[in-house]
Amino acid sequence: MTTQAQLGDKTFTLERFPLDQKNRSLQAWDSADEYLINYVNEHHPDCRSLLILNDSFGALACSFNLLTVCSVNDSYISHQAVAYNLQINKLSTAQFSQIDSLSALPEDIDLVLIKIPRNVGFLQFQLSELSEILAPGTPVIAAGKTKEIHNSTIKSFEQFIGETKTSLAVKKSRLILSTAKGGYKAADFPITWPLEGTEFNITNHANVFSRDSLDIGARFFFNYLPETKKETSIIDLGCGNGVVGVMALARCPKASVTFVDESYMAVESARLNVEQNMPEQFDNCQFIENDCLTDFDQDSVDMVLCNPPFHQAQAVTDHIAWQMFKQAKETLKQGGELRIIGNRHLDYHDKLNRMFGNCKLLGSNKKFVVLSATKNY
After folding, report:
1. For the chain, does the N or the C end have fewer beta carbons within 10 angstroms?
2. Distance between CA atoms of 154 and 44, rounded to whole angstroms?
3. Are 28 and 14 in contact (CB under 8 A)?
4. Long-range Cβ contacts of 120-124 (<8 Å, 24+ apart)
5. Summary mean pLDDT of the chain
6. How confident is the model over 124-140, as pLDDT tens digits?
7. Exposed/middle/buried for residue 61 (C-beta within 10 Å: 0-12, 13-18, 19+)
8. Where is the RlmG N-terminal domain (predicted)?
């Protein structure tokens, strides 16, 4: 598939990330990007200062590079992708900045562009943050696939931003056109809830999977977590709110645990959950935003625990699981173990056998399997 994107009256080279795991069936822009760019060029030609939310791979940042642009993403990978695509297109970053989803938003903004995220709670959090800083009358334009824009999506814009309408559909994408009314409207995040069967309370920021209760996969995985009084090094890979790593800490009191996720909100949630529930072990933990285990020291840890995702941005894909397994093997010490949970239909057993030369079934039910692979070479 070509990486040449015709966006508005410009052509760019746009790559998905991570580069060493490119899936050529997926492209780094979509019809919602195209629709949004064309609309802004036609209706807001005098815009000078632009705030962009959720630009996954930099299509919008590249297209509006001549403006003063602040790009906001919760994804570490998106930060890397946007910077990379600006670089390979030889575009200046003198007027460009990137911030994570928990940083304060800039206030001197002419126009806000949003790619609608999968997570409704995260969208509401972002709209709430915008309501606090936007001057009355500031236009907010969001774009997404028509099938992903529901009545509840429109109501969220009306609740937090102001008067809202939608465009006609073009290439199965639609715009949401809203105008800031002024006045802060709070969203109910972060959320805290009791972890069943424990004395722990779990705090989740808005863009964390299963943010208001224990997900059924983690609940099943708890039955197969390690338990030892020996010193051991563990990585909770794709940690989310860190609940798996927290439970591993509870069962392995001499463990050092590294929590890794590509979501800034996930890593911050994990940090809070260790700090609030196991403060005595906080100094034995690290919290890292990263693209899986890229640049981790090889042969350095005893165990990797993982519940691999099977989507990136809006696309369903298994390349993230492949990357996690490959990099876990590189990071594990000789004799170290990768222990994962996954949906039965994803056939991780075959992947692990091919990569490690072994795979053991630790447990299963109608929906999930828990698998173990050992690094023997």
Report:
1. C
2. 22
3. yes
4. 120/152, 120/153, 120/156, 121/187, 121/189, 121/206, 121/207, 121/211, 122/74, 122/206, 122/207, 122/265, 123/153, 123/156, 124/156, 124/160, 124/187, 124/189, 124/206
5. 94
6. 999 999 999 999 999 99
7. buried
8. 3-180
Q: SS3 for 85?
A: helix
Question: How far is Cα 343 from Cα 53, in angstroms, rounded to an integer?
Answer: 31
Edge to edge, the sheet with strand 111-115 lists 96-100, 68-73, 49-53, 111-115, 139-145, 173-179, 164-166
Report the alpha-carbon distance of residue 117 to residue 136 in Å, rounded: 24
64 vs 58: CA distance, rounded Å: 10
Amino acid at 290: N
- Looking at residue 205, its amino acid is H
How many Cβ atoms are within 10 Å of 212's Cβ, its own excluded?
13
What is the tens place of the pLDDT at every residue in 274-299? 999 999 999 999 999 999 999 999 99
The percentage of the chain sitting over the pLDDT mark of 70, rounded to a whole number, equals: 95
User: What pTM value is reported for the model?
Assistant: 0.95
C-alpha–C-alpha distance, residues 27 and 100, integer Å:
23
Q: How do residues 227-278 score in pLDDT, each as one tens digit?
A: 999 999 999 999 999 999 999 999 999 999 999 999 999 999 999 999 999 9
